[in-house]
Specification:
alpha/beta, Dna Ligase, domain 1, Nucleotidyltransferase, domain 5, five-stranded mixed beta sheet, four-stranded antiparallel beta sheet, 27% strand, Cell division protein FtsA, ATPase_NBD, cell division, FtsA/MreB, membrane
Length: 398
């Protein structure tokens, strides 16, 4: 997804491209070549729509290898001095010293709230008087191996990474509205292989986790129980699927293509009865994650927002409302212009959030130019790659 920030502060989406992510499994790169190819294809599609050339990207990081914890930091303030930015940085740095496993790399250190001399609930302590500054920081880390493979796949596609962003954070940036930034919201981004769980407290990420279950597991259940190929199960799920049997047409009988080429018939309510248990399991595990980290979900959370492609399943929001006894809505990207008809779906939550995150990064000179030969060969044929090599030789000479 390609976007730019307009003078009015509205995010204008000018390009979008989608390709099957055959080199990924549960958010993790399992085949470098296929992942790079998918990246090249999707970026090329987005470039053609936007009419611009992409060289630098913000990349989402997903997968169950993501780990998070809330850490405490402390900084002493000299008497007679007010709290300065440097004091805040010292407190955050101490919180960042949390003893993560050596195989983990820190992605984010997100301050939740500050405390000055015991006074809680302070969002910005700079300029205040006090002798003791404390901070609660939400730390997010990822395994170095999967991160290294993700970087390699992006770089092999001829792109330079400006930032790596945990997908639970990006999803929240994409779909939470101004009203929800004043309350505590549980965001569930149910993707293909994983589900991102994120609790935002007054717009700040307070808890996050990744569940190793997603929409692909629903599809696998359908394929296994109906004895049909995975691709047919995915088609049936998207076209006729529902999260609750009572929402399915009792008179509708689906014709499905079974393995071996024969046709079978399945009542629509029966399909919903296959889908519902897996969705209930995802909702239960998400509740368990929040309960263990923050306390009872119904007490701590004001609203639930569903995102990701699986949120499009008819009745998923009603099922979540039944299971959580909380207001639930399906989250779609907000506050954007441009290709709104294309991106206004819960499946685009993370991508819009990544673009929005990118607009907050400081402008950088192009210090490191990506190697683009592979993409140029893919898009413009062998001659483009030859011209790229000639340009490289000339640049090295001068």
């Amino acid at each position: 997804m390609i976007g730019e920030l307009g003078p009015d502060g509205i995010l204008d989406i000018i390009g979008e491209g989608t390709a099957p992510s055959q080199g990924l499994k549960r958010g993790v790169v399992v085949n470098l070549e296929r992942t790079s190819e998918a990246i090249r294809q999707s970026v090329h599609q987005a470039e053609r729509v936007a009419g611009v050339r992409v060289e630098r990207v913000v990349v989402g990081v997903g997968g169950a290898h993501l780990k998070s914890v809330t850490s405490h930091g402390l900084a002493a303030i000299r008497r007679g001095h007010s709290i300065a930015e440097s004091d805040v940085e010292r407190a955050i740095e101490q919180a960042k010293a949390y003893p993560f496993d050596g195989e983990l790399e820190l992605l984010h250190a997100l301050p939740l709230e500050f405390k000055v001399d015991g006074q809680e609930g302070i969002r910005d302590p700079v300029g205040m008087a006090g002798v003791r500054l404390e901070v609660e920081v939400h730390l997010m880390a990822a395994a170095r191996g999967p991160l290294s493979n993700l970087r390699r796949a992006v770089e092999d596609a001829g792109l330079f990474i400006d930032a790596l962003v945990a997908q639970p954070l990006a999803s929240g940036l994409g779909v939470l509205n101004p009203e929800e930034e004043k309350m505590t919201v549980l965001l569930l981004d149910v993707g293909g292989g994983t589900t991102d769980v994120a609790v935002f407290r007054e717009g700040r990420l307070a808890h996050s986790a990744v569940l190793p279950l997603g929409g692909d597991h629903v599809t696998q259940d359908i394929a296994q129980l109906l004895k049909i190929p995975f691709e047919e199960a995915e088609r049936v799920k998207k076209k006729y699927g529902a999260a609750l049997p009572e929402l399915a047409d009792p008179e509708l009988v689906l014709e499905i293509n079974q393995e071996g080429g024969s046709l079978g018939e399945v009542p629509a309510p029966e399909l919903a009865r296959i889908i519902r248990p897996r969705l209930r399991e995802i909702l239960h595990l998400a509740r368990q994650s929040v309960d263990e980290a923050m306390g009872p979900l119904e007490v701590k959370v004001n609203r639930v927002v569903l995102a990701g492609g699986t949120a499009l399943l008819r009745g998923f929001d009603l099922l979540a409302r039944q299971q959580y006894s909380l207001p639930v809505r399906v989250g779609k990207p907000h506050g954007v212009s441009g290709l709104t008809d294309v991106v206004a779906t819960p499946a685009h939550a993370t991508a819009v959030g990544l673009v929005r995150y990118g607009t907050t990064l400081p402008a950088k000179a192009l210090e490191a130019k990506p190697k683009r030969e592979k993409r140029e060969k893919q898009e413009g044929g062998q001659s483009a790659g030859i011209w790229a090599r000639i340009k490289e030789i000339i640049n090295n000479l001068f």
